[in-house]
Amino acid sequence: MSCCNRRCGLIAGAVFGAVVAVLGGILIPVGDLIIQKTVKQEAVIEPGTTAHENWAAAGAKVYRQFWLFEVTNAQEVLDDGAAPVVTERGPYTYMMRYLAKDNITFHHNHTVSYLLPNGAIFEPSMSAGTEEDKITSLNLAVAVGIAADTMIKTSNSSLFQRRTVKELLWGYHDPILKGAVGFFLDYNNTYDGYYNVFTGKDDILNVGKIDMWRQSFWNDKYCDMLNGTDASSFPPFVDKKEPIFFFSSDICRSVSASYEETVNLKGIDVYRYSLLQSTLASPVDNPDNKCFCSNMKTTKNCTLAGVLDISSCQEGRPIYISLPHFLHGSPSLRTDVLGLNPDEEHHKTFLDVEPTTGFTLNFAKRIQVNMMYGPSKVCGDVKSVTVFLSSTFKQTATLDDETADMFKKELMSRIQMLEIIQQVLLGVGLGIFVLCLIFYCVVRRSHNQSKLA
Questions:
Q1: Which of 191, 189, 41, 199 has the alpha carbon at shortest distance from 105?
Q2: CA angle in degrees (0–180, nearest 5) for 54-59-60
Q3: What is the mean pLDDT of residues 419-427?
Q4: Where are the transmembrane segments (predicted)?
């Protein structure tokens, strides 16, 4: 009777272990469904969700660091037509996105519109100098091509000028144009937008994707497409096998980025995405860029790589965007202007995206602002069209320690706890089941041997 009880107990234990293991196995898909449902609910842009709180507020501090290119041989360029030699000055750092979204309006078609206030506050502690540092750079009034030759001569202007960092970035009164000019003139009194984006209420895969932004600039259906989000977040459950798309108002176009590697950011695993070399490739190498090529002369019949003409969205000003130091650009760009040292690590643009929520937790957007000038005899002996580097900037933002701890506590720890429970139940259940079966076999064999004896 005792032996029968032991065998029955072991069978019951095996059944119990199997039930526990099955429960652990069931929790895996059920837990995943719970996680997906919760994340999807909180990722929708509507009042009361985590996504809305982060989206509507100013969020993490965004800094923009400027490096200005100083021409060190200005007189040789003017007298002899020598290639400009430049050296970087900076960084000069400003806090930018510190103002919350404005004029937020929700619409019945599951979209929300808003404006982004522009602002810039100088951060001396993060800068290599002051705003009063003087730089020898391209004369903006001459470069924009608005001033007539007679105006340039009568005002005794030169192709180069010496201005303070503050003047070059935020504006100064120009004697030729008799008005204000600067790279980011009146920036503090302007808005980026109007934006209209999908809330994701009807389809979470559309959350944050841009529906409308100002007007079109490229006069081409393909180039005017608004693909993806504003890069602050993406739809949840990111698949690293697929590229991500985002729109940048700095260059008035959408771009894509591909998965590069998984990195650990303050205890959180994130996917790092970076721009492909094909983004600014010439139409010869990337036919998709054909509609971005509008000036056959300056682009050398659309064979020039690494430079994007954005004059159509800059009120006709001859502004050309590239990666810093013409990274991934045509070799001629670095022979026309000397002193450049492109480096993938320091000059690429990347985003670190948390794959479960789709939130961008860290990014570095690097852009170089260029202007073209020439050929001309009015302001020196400039024999050919030359890309003059004006400035580069790196715009960065990363989550602080407090936000990282909150993120890990509210999301990551719960997911990890559920996974631990799943694994423990599955492991313990299987262990009990196997041990009970083994002991059952031992007891039964012992019982059979005793009967034969």
A1: 199
A2: 130
A3: 62
A4: 424-443
- Which pLDDT score, from 0 to 100, does residue 146 have? 47
- CA separation (Å) from 372 to 326, 333, 358, 376? 14, 11, 39, 12
What is the rounded distance in angstroms from the CA atom of residue 208 to the CA atom of residue 353? 14
The pLDDT value recorded for residue 417 is: 59
3-class DSSP state for residue 152?
helix
Place of tokens 């032991």: 6
Q: Which residue spans within 123-225 are E strands per DSSP? A: 134-138, 160-164, 172-174, 179-181, 191-198, 210-213
Element (H, E) at 151: helix 149-154
Name residue 265's beta-bridge partners: 268
- Classify 367 in phi/psi space as left (phi over 0), alpha (psi -120 to 50) or beta: beta
Tokens of residue 76, six digits: 């040789």
Q: Which residues, 6 or more positions from 309, have their beta carbon under 8 angstroms from its beta carbon?
A: 292, 293, 294, 295, 298, 299, 318, 319, 320
Determine contact, residues 40/207, Cβ cutoff 8 Å. no
Contact 276, 256 (CB under 8 A): yes
Give Cα separations from 348 to 71, 239, 272 (angstroms).
24, 22, 12
Residue type, position 9, single letter? G
- Asked if the model's pLDDT at residue 141 lies above 70, the reply is yes
Helix axis angle, 413-452 relative to 2-43, nearest 10°?
Answer: 160
Classify 255 as helix, strand or coil: strand
* Residues whose CB falls within 8 Å of the CB of residue 80, separated by 6 or more in sequence, listed in order: 381
When comparing pLDDT for 183 and 411, which is higher?
183
CA diameter of the chain:
125
Which residues have CB under 8 Å from 128's CB, separation 6+? 89, 90, 91, 92
Domain regions of the chain by residue span: 2-40+417-452, 61-98+119-189+215-399
Greatest mean pLDDT range, 20-24, 152-156, 260-264: 260-264
pLDDT of residue 198: 97
CA angle, 310 then 312 then 315, to 5°: 105
> With contact defined as beta carbons under 8 Å apart, do 350 and 272 qualify?
yes
Q: State how far the Cα of 267 lies from the Cα of 284, in Å rounded to an integer.
A: 43
Sign of the Cα pseudo-torsion (353, 354, 355, 360, in order): negative
pLDDT mean over 283-306: 89
The pLDDT of residue 196 is 96
Specify the DSSP element, H or E, that contains 274.
strand 268-275
Q: What is the pLDDT of residue 45?
A: 94
Q: Are 168 and 135 in contact (CB under 8 A)?
A: yes
